[in-house]
Amino acid sequence: MRYPKRIGRLSVPGRRVQLATAAMLLVATTVAACGDGKDEGAEASAPKAPATIPELTKDPLTLSFIWFDWPPAHALEDFANAEYKKERPNATIKVNTVPNANWHDAMFTQFAAHKTDFDIAILDSQHIGEAVTNGNILDITDFVKKNIDVAAYNPYLLAAYGQFPQAETGKRDENASLYGLPLLGDTWTMIYRKDLIGDKPPQTWDQMISAAEKCQADNPGVSGLAFHQANGSDAAAVTYNTVNGVYGGNLWDSKTRKIEGVINDAAGQEAMDVLVNKMKPLTAKGSGNWFIDEVNAAVAQGKACIAFNWIAASGGLLDPKQSTLGTTREQILDKLGFATLPSQKTNLVPLGGMGMHVSAYSSEANQAEALNFMEWFERADIQKKWAAAGGVPSRTDALQSPEFLNAGPFNQVYTDSVPRMRDMWNVPEYARLVNIENTNVNAALNGAKKPKEALDDIAKEQQSVLDSSGRRGGGGL
Amino acid sequence: MSDPVPLTTDHPGQVASATPPARGRSRRLSDRGLAVAFISPALLLLLAMSVFPLLWALYLSFTDYSATRGGPAHFIWFGNYTAILTSAQVHQRALTTLIYVIGAVGLQTVLGFAIAYLISRRTHGRGLLTTLFLVPMMLSPVVVGLFWRFMLDAQFGVVNSMLGSLGLGQVEWLTRQRTALVSLIVVDTWQWTPFIMLIALAGLTAVPKYLYEAASIDRASEWFRFRNITLPLVWPLLLIAVLFRAIEAFRLFDLVYILTSGGPGVSTETLSFHVYKVAFLGFNTGTASAYGILMVLVVIVLTQLYLRYLNKLKEG
To answer: Which residue of A107, A377, A441, B13 lies most exposed, with the fewest beta carbons within 10 A?
Structure first.
């Protein structure tokens, strides 16, 4: 009978062999993982797209986008599949969506892996710096020169969604490179209750606060104001930046990269004081974590006299199924008015919206299709059709067309707001800058910090982010 | 497949042939070789999915590497570790995490043990009660976070609605500094008390009945029996449950992400949530790796101290 061998500790030479094997395995795995030396030491810069669109494939192809989940994303997929397919029957458009809070991470983690499941990234204007510096999107300067009628746009819109380094507010640097083209324009609209504060919207910020105060006092259960205050995404930061602009403040000096002493100067302090001490008391209790959906819900439920929201997210307000303000669109419009933001010391409004940017890691066939799609999308007739389908175009002729102006009661607001727009910082450090501002403004709005303390902390922490590029260790803290 | 072995023989005069012996195993494959062959797939998976990433994170923690910026990783040795350990931001998150861990695990232990004790005294319906109490633990934390977010909404939430019907005012559960952290503790307690309850119930069921019988004969009071029989015997098992919960609570991320996003301001940002921001907002991979390694070290050291205490308890 065969007895099993006694299993015990291996002899010393045997253990050595096993240890050596394990060590070799580990080293081999490490070398294999480090072996993708393509990016090691390579200069980080955006690769160039060809000036002429390469020959397109005749095989079935899916052109994928990535965006966050909101109505314009679904509108884009429907519109593109209906219209683009007429020219390119073999192409299918797929707009992948993620929750707004994960939008940046979803795109940039794939960029980090140098492999994307999307061909066109729909980037916020402030994401461009990070994507360009890391070489994640194509430089389309030559492509734009050859295929796009740049004179058809307000120069700042073209610059905001494509240019890097960032343009001065209201301008475009024609010598700077372009990395994207506008997809969806957007800005804030003031939504006001005509039946509660009258047909004429307030013209100044002070008048707006007084009207909201009176409306709240006259209508128990209805709060004077509703606006974004959450500390996710860029919610609270955009709110402060808007008030800062209206009260004559600046976010930074882009030439000297100075924030300390700029955002927290007298105008900045006044803006923070107005936001926390005059506007916040007019909001609903517990609204300190409100963003787009919560503001829309408050308006639709008749719980706010005046609200501020992005135009592209306001379409649902006119849907009787989602509103208690009326059983038809007309009844709702009898009560709701849409106006450009009131002015005070300046008439600045926040620039929203996004551009289309071609992934540097997409296949050549898909990059060619992406360029063809962008050329098609920016044509005058297509921009008007996009407007009629519920999109916000960027070409001036489309913005002034009846197709756009008649498509929604807030579209005139957008057209009137275009010359008044101001953007945030478009630098690689954007994600950290906006997080600092969001958390501190949110803290001030919810009583966790005094307004002055919050603003001074924003200035100090943001300056430290801009100054820390050469720091060794602890980056990101 | 080999032919079936005949049970009878066609020739009665002949002795039925015995079943041929099984073919010996190949000499090349010894018992040890066979063991290695069976273990190696799992071992390779473990190496690739756990050991290598851990070692890789350890390597990155000594560098200034960024996953998105690309380029080579420069060695900065303990630069990341020094920055993390001296950062006021990290100290603040560590304090928040500590308050959270003590609050949540403490509450869960008291409630979990109390529920288990009450269930253990029932003779009927014990199984059904235990199953019902276990339901929250089976839900995804993201789902739990989402429905509690709706329930705790200051304007439309059912909790404030109930308070209102009792004549009490609205409470800003998720947007005030103190209530936000309390809300997190309450939600975590709602979900994870059943875990402590389950382990405590196992301990309570295992207490030998003859001890209680002996105490009854001696006319010992209920409190005496609890203090001198039940608690000492269940205590080591309960401490293990507390250890598991404390480790889980230490790395809390999902509930914070869904319920408060770390707010108001950063007042409910835990260490894990902060690591997430360091790793993905600026893609500071080196710093985030060092941060993660430090968190693992803290858990290992505290666990070792705790286990030593447990062993001493056993020996005692």
So the answer is: B13
